[in-house]
Amino acid sequence: MIHYTDLTGAPAHAHDLGWPDGEAERQILANAHPDDHDRLRQVFDERRAAEQEHMSAATAEQADIGWGDYFSLPWQPPGEHDPIMVYGHVLSVAAVRTFDALSVGVIERGYGRGWRITHSFSAVGTDDGTLGGHHVCQMTPIAEWEFDAAEMAGWRSVPLLLTGGTQLPCGCPLVPGCLNPAH
């Protein structure tokens, strides 16, 4: 969320997806008090610089994560907590089209620069998951069956199993039953 002072001097905020978007930036600046313009432009410049770093860091496999694909990523909760794994999927084009026009435009423009709108789950999240945005450089592509295995494990134990823990003879993580459709 971007906080600023509007043209009348009242506090205001703009919901954003966390990535740079020229059209959204123009709308925020048009509604912001001139005293806030320099600070807002600095925020936008910092976001563009971070996005360039993200694009440079993304592998070809990460860049291929597309609409409807599944992923995992490590996340460090605020405070002194251990990192957790997040599992999710990129929303489908049809799901994105149900959003308001401004959001759809931001999502579509961000997609080509590596940003994905996602539905994510973790051991510390809500049962319904969380809508949000991630850059592909943060994501590791996974198969649907791996996502299903993580869900069955309560979003907890699968990352440890996938990084060297006990596996079934077929190579799948040790969870109730092999979920790999190839087996």
Q: Can you describe this structure?
A:
It is a single chain. This protein is α+β, with helices and mostly antiparallel strands. It has 2 domains: 56 residues; 102 residues, no CATH class. Helix content is 35%, strand content 20%. About 11% of the residues have low confidence.
Task: Write a short abstract of this structure.
The chain is of the alpha+beta class and 183 residues long. The chain contains 7 helices and 7 strands. The strands form 2 sheets. Strands 6-5-4-3-7 form a 5-stranded antiparallel β-sheet. Strands 1-2 form a two-stranded antiparallel sheet.
Q: Which strand order spans the largest sheet, edge to edge or round the barrel? A: 6-5-4-3-7
The H/E string reads EEHHHEEHHEEEHH
> Approximately what portion of the residues adopt beta-strand conformation?
15-25%
Mean pLDDT, all residues: 81
Number of strands: 7
What kind of sheet is the major sheet?
A: 5 strands, antiparallel
Q: What is the overall shape?
A: globular
Task: State the low-pLDDT regions, or none.
Answer: 159-179
What's the helical proportion of residues?
A: 25-40%
Number of helices: 7
| Gap from first CA to last CA | 45 Å
Structural class by sheet pairing and helices? alpha+beta
Count of discrete domains:
2
